[in-house]
Structure formats: structure tokens, C-alpha cells
């Protein structure tokens, strides 16, 4: 309201100065309004879904526990009762066996029990990963066949 009133009075006598003054007043008001806006909310980082933190291995002894995370470069295992998972880096020379058969890291699943032996010269790298899983959980092929085979007998219906 004040800006419009000033603009009308100044416009009569000094048209050029009026335009400049109105522009400066508008700019000043816009700056004040923008300065009072609250800052944008800060994006929150997403925490790991497992709820536990992971620490690098620091022991020379093999570690046993459940797999909590696995990728082509890293495996986390959590010992029973431990507060955090222990992680090992998976190297190309890491020996991996699942129920006695040679496998790749991609074939390991979360929740499987395993024992990881660290390399002697670098405790954060897995020298060997031995996974043991029960045949029922592993999907024993005989059991799967029994469950999947369903005998269907059709008999004609007389009307």
C-alpha cells in the first residue's frame, strides 16, 4: 500500500526517478521477504537396515557367525551375541566353499552360517570362507521334487 502511494506522488513530477525508486523499493522488499524464509530441510542419510555397525577384522583367528551382508568385494558376519558385524574384503584369491563345494562369493546368501579365515599378512582380507548350510535350507533337490510333484487325476463328470 505504501509503495503504491509513493509511486503515484512521485510519478507526477519526476517520472524517471519514480521508476528507479519504485524498482529499488520493490527490490528491497523482495530481499527482506526472501531473507525471512526458513532454510530448506537437510536431507537425512539412510542408515543400514541391519541395525548393527560393521567393523574390520582385527583378529588372527577364524571368525564364525551368520552372513549379514555380502557383495563381490566384501562379506560381513555377525557372531552370536556380538554387538557388531565383522567385515572382510573378498579378494580374487579368496577360497570359497559351500558344503564342501567350490563356489563364488555371488552364491553366498545372507543368513547362512560361515567361518572366515583371514589372510596372515592382512587381517581385513578373507583367505578362506567356509559356508555350511543344512540341506533343508539349501533346497535339497529330492525334497523340492517331492513338494513340487502333484498328481492330478481327472475323472469325467456325468450329467
Briefly say what this structure is.
By secondary structure, the chain is α+β, with helices and mostly antiparallel strands. The chain is built from four helices and seven strands, in the order H-H-E-E-E-E-E-E-E-H-H.
Q: Describe it for me?
A:
The chain has 159 residues and is of the alpha+beta class. The chain folds into 2 domains: 2-33, no CATH class; 54-136, OB fold (Dihydrolipoamide Acetyltransferase, E2P) (Beta Barrel). 28% of the residues lie in helices and 29% in strands. It is built from 4 helices and 7 strands; from the N terminus they run ααβββββββαα. The protein has helices at 2-13, 15-35, 135-138, 141-148, and strands at 54-56, 63-70, 74-78, 85-98, 101-102, 113-118, 125-132. A 5-stranded mixed beta barrel has the order 2-3-4-7-6. β2 and β3 (74-78) form a beta hairpin. The N and C termini lie far apart (90 Å). Residues 1-8, 45-50 and 137-150 have low confidence and may be disordered.
